[in-house]
């Protein structure tokens, strides 16, 4: 049976990907090359420094660690300015309703995000009170597809992995759920998230009743 839901943040509950993209694009422009929306797809769910490495490879640049840290900080300052202006209107369709549905049905709720800015986003959008546990990029050593972020979330909730479902928009996140021994629901397209137990276009297509049907179906 399902006792807990663990949510990725960016791309599942809020659309911060567009702000990450604007900030990375600006950094690329300052470094003298173009960074397309298609390039940006490769950064989804990836940590800040790993994202920078991908961006620099697009521009054919190799820089030393001190310079890279400075560039990542510059990008994060622009990004932080943008997320500082976020409010509840930027919660993705169906997300708030599904979080409420989970709580009303007695399911535990955790966040499992790679972002070090997760608390700012949760507070500005008013989502913080919906979570029993919050695991973000400030609390983990290994990034997805390593299962750490979800394993830590489940243990903080006191629920064993086989009773957990992960909601993710990134392939690396679905793989992290699998390695954690948890079920997963992909938010997006089956072409990239085919490894998930179920794929839906958005949380607007999700209810706790439907989640329980799927879990029951898998046991049969
Ligand atoms: C998010 C985004 C990634 C971003 C990462 C780190 O992860 O999907 O694009 O690079 O966080 O973010 P920050 O620079 O704020 O620490 P998630 O796991 O919420 O999808
Ligand atoms: Mg994501």
UniProtKB/TrEMBL annotation:
This enzyme's EC code(s): 5.4.2.6
Pfam families per UniProt: Hydrolase
Key words of the record: Carbohydrate metabolism, Isomerase, Magnesium, Metal-binding, Phosphoprotein
Recorded GO MF terms: beta-phosphoglucomutase activity
Enzyme class of the recorded protein, top EC level: isomerase
Obligatory cofactor(s): Mg(2+)
Reactions mediated catalytically: beta-D-glucose 1-phosphate = beta-D-glucose 6-phosphate
Protein family (similarity comment): Belongs to the HAD-like hydrolase superfamily. CbbY/CbbZ/Gph/YieH family.
Identification of the protein by name: Beta-phosphoglucomutase
Organism of derivation: Paenibacillus haidiansis
């Amino acid at each position: 049976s399902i006792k807990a839901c663990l949510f990725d943040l960016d791309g599942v509950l809020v659309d911060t990907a567009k702000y990450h993209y604007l900030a990375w694009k600006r950094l690329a422009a300052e470094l003298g090359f173009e960074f397309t929306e298609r390039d940006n797809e490769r950064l989804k769910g990836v940590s800040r420094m790993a994202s920078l490495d991908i961006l620099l490879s697009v521009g054919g640049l190799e820089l030393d660690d001190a310079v890279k840290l400075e560039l990542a900080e510059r990008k994060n300052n622009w990004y932080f300015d943008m997320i500082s202006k976020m409010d509840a209107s930027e919660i993705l369709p169906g997300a708030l309703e599904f979080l409420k549905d989970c709580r009303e049905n007695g399911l535990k709720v955790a966040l499992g995000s790679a972002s070090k800015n997760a608390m700012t986003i949760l507070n500005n959008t008013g989502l913080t009170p919906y979570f029993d546990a919050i695991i973000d990029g400030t609390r983990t050593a290994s990034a997805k597809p390593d299962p750490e972020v979800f394993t830590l979330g489940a243990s903080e909730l006191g629920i064993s992995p086989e009773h957990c479902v992960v909601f993710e928009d990134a392939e690396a996140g679905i793989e992290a759920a699998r390695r954690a021994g948890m079920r997963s629901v992909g938010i997006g397209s089956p072409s990239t998230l085919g490894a998930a137990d179920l794929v839906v276009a958005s949380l607007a297509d999700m209810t706790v009743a439907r989640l329980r049907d799927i879990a029951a179906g898998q046991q049969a």
